[in-house]
Amino acid sequence: MDNVFPKNFLWGGATAANQIEGAWNVDGRGPATSDYARLITSETKKLEGTFDQHVPHNAASLEMIEDMDVHPENWTLPKRWGIDFYHTYKEDIKLLAGMGFKVFRMSISWSRIFPNGDDKEPNEKGLEFYDNVFDELHKYGIEPMVTISHFDIPMHLARKYHGFLSRYTVDAFVRYAETLFKHYKGKVKYWLTFNEINNILSNPYTSAGVIMSGAQHPNDCNPYLGHWQEKFQAVHNQFVASALAVKKLHAIDPNAKIGNMLCRLENYAESTKPEDNLQLLFEDHFNWFFTDVQAKGEYPYYMERFFKHNHIHIQMEPKDKQILREGTVDFITISYYMTYVMRYKGKSVAEPTGRLVSDIKNPNIPRSEWGWPIDPIGLRITLNKIYDRYHLPIFISENGLGAMDTVTENGKIYDDYRINYLHEHVYQLREAIKDGVDVFGYAWWGPIDLVSSGTSQMSKRYGMIYIDQDDYGHGTKKRLLKKSYYYYKKLIASNGADLEDNIDY
Ligand code: BGP
Fold it and tell me: How far is the CA of 489 from the centre of ligand 1 (A)?
């Protein structure tokens, strides 16, 4: 069989601590921003008068956070229980290993290591937990790829310092990263700094622990309100934190590698009009910006005009430019879910959309039940563009389909839609590799059902492993293998050569 995937291609899956671990207040873990992400269903949205199904609104205002502390019984906060991976990791890793995983992307919960984010000493119990997880993965020959910060900032840093709006948080982050690099030296070969660093523009609370000044309502934390000065300052601080972490890792463990993580949104112009294509360029710049800094080590020329036009002044410390230059990443990772459509907004200077799903529907591609456009060819396009721009190895750190699953009477889940999605994306990935793009791994998002990042729903399922648990945490918690489990297993066993859906399930 003609196969193009490199021999040691890293097939696997991706998760995040706040969406799986639960045990939010166990063994010394401190509260994190994600512990205050409430469940959002279509009902909640109706009640709050929100008509856009696709804007993540689970970020809380200060007032809500305070009420969650006093009256937790009034709120549904699913990230506090996740899928209880903290207690079930052995059984869950065994199931993942059963698919032949070579890599498991996961994150470390900062407040499990430093409960307040800035404590003098790390929490031994927290360090021990991840030691156990890494050992368990290695037992099956699975390489961990670890995100240092994936959408959960210690609440103390968010409340007291506005998260990454403050340099204090940068210092705390670097100490945290250094602690991890020293402690897990030799156990972790692949690190990532910030998950979807560009998400800060739409979700500064989730990404960077920034509670917007004067926030009265969760919507104040969402894209529509601008706050560009604060957002871009927090972005800058994360760039510096990321670069400093890169430098630390290189000094502490020269055998390990460290990458970025960009939510890559491929854009198409709505028409052949030059204006729509100009808008496309603008939007693309807002996506490239993050990797341009993290991989090339300096602010790109095109941001200058945007900053000037919007009176944004980034406060830099004297050595920042040098730090950015010296702390460039070893490889690029992207999450890839969808493509956007761009229409001219009538302005000659760019303005970031800051939203996850574009208003303009692309009539040529389908959408998921949550309205996310499904575009496998977009993956090939994006991989080519990224490689062309940076010439660094690429890892797909997330790709997947959130869908409702139905369990039959005899406990089966026929998720052909998920198989189809996987099939089509891996097919395009293969084409990209044939094009000459250097991709060294692919991680399916949420190979075991987990709590959604944007809505905190459990019913938005990504997994090949089903968990009998509903949005409210009710259920037997039993793990069931979906049809896609066997499909992915076969695909991995053939190193991506066999994409045929002939599963006898
Ligand atoms: C990415 C996040 C993940 C993940 C995924 C799916 O933005 O990095 O944490 O959850 O999207 O999003 P959701 O869970 O909202 O469906």
Answer: 23
In angstroms, the CA 9 to CA 188 distance is 17
Q: Which of 136, 196, 230, 270 is catalytic?
A: 196
pTM above 0.90, yes or no: yes
Is 335 near ligand 1, meaning CB less than 6 Å away? yes
Domains of the chain: 10-493 (3.20.20.80)
Query: What are the residues whose beta carbons fall under 8 Å from the beta carbon of 293, sequence distance 6 or more?
Result: 239, 299, 300, 324
> What is the Cβ-side half-sphere exposure of residue 463, based on CA atoms within 13 angstroms?
27
CA atoms within 13 A on the CB side of 348: 1
The CA radius of gyration of the chain, in Å to the nearest whole number, is 21
Identify whether 196 is a catalytic site residue: yes
* Ligand 1 and 402: CB distance under 6 A: yes
160-186, pLDDT tens digit by residue?
Answer: 998 999 999 999 999 999 999 999 999
Q: Which helix (H) or strand (E) holds 92?
A: helix 85-97
Specify whether 270 is catalytic: no
